[in-house]
Amino acid sequence: MRSSLQQPARLVPLAFVAAITVGTVLLLLPIARTGPGGTDLITALFTATSAVCVTGLIIVDTSSYWTPFGQAVILALIQVGGFGIMTGSTLLGVLISRRLGLRTRIIAQAETRTLDLGDVTAVLRIILIATLLVELAVWGALAARLHWGYAEAWPIAIWHGLFHSISAFNNAGFSTYADSLMRFSDDWLVLGSIMVAVIIGGIGFPVLVDLRRTFRRPGRWSLHTKITLLGTAALIGVGTITVLGYESAAGGLFDPLTISERLLDALFHSVMTRTAGFNSIDIGALQTETLMLTNILMFIGGGSAGTAGGIKVSTALVLILAVWAQIRGEADTTAFGRRVSADILRQALTLIVLAMIAISLGTLHLLSVTTFSLEQVLFETISAFATVGLSTGITADLPPSAELTLVTLMFLGRVGTITVATGLALKRSQRPYRFPEERPIVG
Amino acid sequence: MRSSLQQPARLVPLAFVAAITVGTVLLLLPIARTGPGGTDLITALFTATSAVCVTGLIIVDTSSYWTPFGQAVILALIQVGGFGIMTGSTLLGVLISRRLGLRTRIIAQAETRTLDLGDVTAVLRIILIATLLVELAVWGALAARLHWGYAEAWPIAIWHGLFHSISAFNNAGFSTYADSLMRFSDDWLVLGSIMVAVIIGGIGFPVLVDLRRTFRRPGRWSLHTKITLLGTAALIGVGTITVLGYESAAGGLFDPLTISERLLDALFHSVMTRTAGFNSIDIGALQTETLMLTNILMFIGGGSAGTAGGIKVSTALVLILAVWAQIRGEADTTAFGRRVSADILRQALTLIVLAMIAISLGTLHLLSVTTFSLEQVLFETISAFATVGLSTGITADLPPSAELTLVTLMFLGRVGTITVATGLALKRSQRPYRFPEERPIVG
Ligand SMILES: [K+]
Ligand SMILES: [K+]
């Protein structure tokens, strides 16, 4: 039974490797690049990985380095990558539920124990519809705003609108503007549309389905939906307020801005850190304190089984709930009148520790092959692993070995986390006996 | 019953506050300072806290700023602080065992359920004897070496020997030499004696008692002893090898040194990071990679219920064992044929998360009131919280508010951790019912 279940868990990494390979080959073609001849292998590989893993880190400017063909390839890779991670992780989640004999909340009508073709089709159809609906709406809003508000000709506005709508819903953070979205830093309409797409795409499929089914009855939401929504709201709020505080101080980036601009840019930055990666402000000019806070938000990331990266909001919240329960002296970790299964805590912990190890090793490597500061390097590796794509501006200046490290981190962060999470949930080895208990001293 | 148990847990912080207060007052006296008049309040408070919490961070040079009287006060505070934390945490540990109805491994002969005066006396006596034995032996070795090897007159050699022997056993890291132990960077005898004192003092009383009783029968060691010894050996080994690697590279600090010096200084640095805090090399000149590794070693610290700080070796190992068990798919966290109690994991996790929060807040504050880099500031706050005392050299240049933050971190790291650990172990609130279980998605 085990082998048949591990098959799909292996399928996701293989599919991503295939997509990255195809993308690399396409970007190597001379027609993808504006300059003479084809690009080099590292640039093509890095860009394809960044697109498929919906990260958005770039070593060459998307708008000037790549031709419309190259940009279309990147856009296609983003759509494939985003759709792939959303369907892949959702189906693996269904699989875990089946294997553990749990009632599958995701597709409640199907109660059989095997993942049949009907389920797969249903999941694909719902995700496809949600993707198209959101992307079309945001595309329309952006194109209209760019045409009427910024005097872009219709074909240009439509192309930019399409690119950013897809890039936003898939939390990719790629932009056809050289300065990302900094030119829109006071435009509530543009940044607002982007934020809506980012949040819906990044909140995760299980939450979307749950909301669609029981939108008016919050009492019937699953625990996962509740803690994801609560965590998302809390993180956006805390992020906004802290960025406002640190950057509004004398010498901060918001010093010359109006109140409305400060609010918009703080909110936008807070939402984008988890994990869309567009920026309306210059990341390299932020206070070190803001960068540290951004690091934490990036590490946590968005919702499970969506287009967002990071360790996921629910993973972080399970850990926080456990600590809170321990402080209150309660034996069970509880939230919203539900008890969080004890093995879920250990899964969350394991995922977080593995993520920290990956980021630490990446940081050590970047430190040893560059002269950049710890601030810059740590920000870059967390951004890569959590597939955020924000940068203090050092990406293009990294040596090839550091770029390969980032490629590895992006892949591990995107595909590794859900593969490991699936593996952790499924793997059970039974001992025929239990060892006697002992209590080592803690602290 | 609860209140009578919380009394001793409150006694430890109160005793430390009292010792720091007395120390501050004594250091404020004009006879404590070589310069004219008494010192200022911040300097006295900082130095007294650093001494009582056996941290070793200094904002004025111990050898030139303080008179022999001032140095004697510091030495007395170190001895009181080290003895206090060792007896305090040991007695709190005994208390937890009693409360939870566990067989007390520490003082096996007493099997009654209340902590009677006999136990306290026994613990105090054993700790006193161990302290005196080690300190006397190291004192003798150091004084002899300083007299015959470095031509120090007997009174000077005896004073320096006494100061460093007490400072080492109590993991304090204070030195009467302005450059800490950098002048002995090639002296296996001096650094070796210091290391022995540091390791014995920092391994923790429970391990010492266990070893004394069953030294030749490792099979009868407690799980705590086994994982503390294993963890200590592993951390010393990993630390030594990594420091050797990073600093032996071209441009590293060890570049001009002989093999013997490299080995000695790497080993010494690895041992001192957890958490004695003497240095035989210039910390400010270390590679950023070495500083990051040092951060991790400092955070982990030494053994429980000894003079060492940090979250403790056993705490870190419980977490690592849990992650390892999860990766193997085992339901129980096991080691050496024993099962680690499940609530111990949540206690360890809580302690680590609280430590990270304290360090993060301290780091954010120091970043916002100084212009030092994240490397420097993070190193300083971890060093303070884990009561290590190593510094990249910024301590003396911090503004008063930052110094007060370090004072707070030293106190929290020293007294807060064991108080919280005791609280976590003792607090049990019982619900009359359990909530239904749910499994939020992780990753
Ligand atoms: K992204
Ligand atoms: K120390």
TrEMBL record, chains A, B:
Keyword Glycoprotein: no
Transmembrane segments: 12-29, 41-60, 72-96, 117-142, 188-209, 229-246, 296-327, 348-367, 404-426
Main localization of the protein described in the UniProt heading: membrane
Pfam families the UniProt entry points to: TrkH
Gene Ontology cellular-component annotations: plasma membrane
Any one GO MF annotation of this record: monoatomic cation transmembrane transporter activity
Compartmental location: Cell membrane
Keywords associated with the record: Cell membrane, Ion transport, Membrane, Transmembrane, Transmembrane helix, Transport
Recorded topology in the membrane: Multi-pass membrane protein
Source taxon at top rank: Bacteria
GO biological process, one term: metal ion transport
Name the UniProt record assigns to this protein: Potassium transporter Trk
Organism field: Devosia pacifica
Lineage: Bacteria, Pseudomonadati, Pseudomonadota, Alphaproteobacteria, Hyphomicrobiales
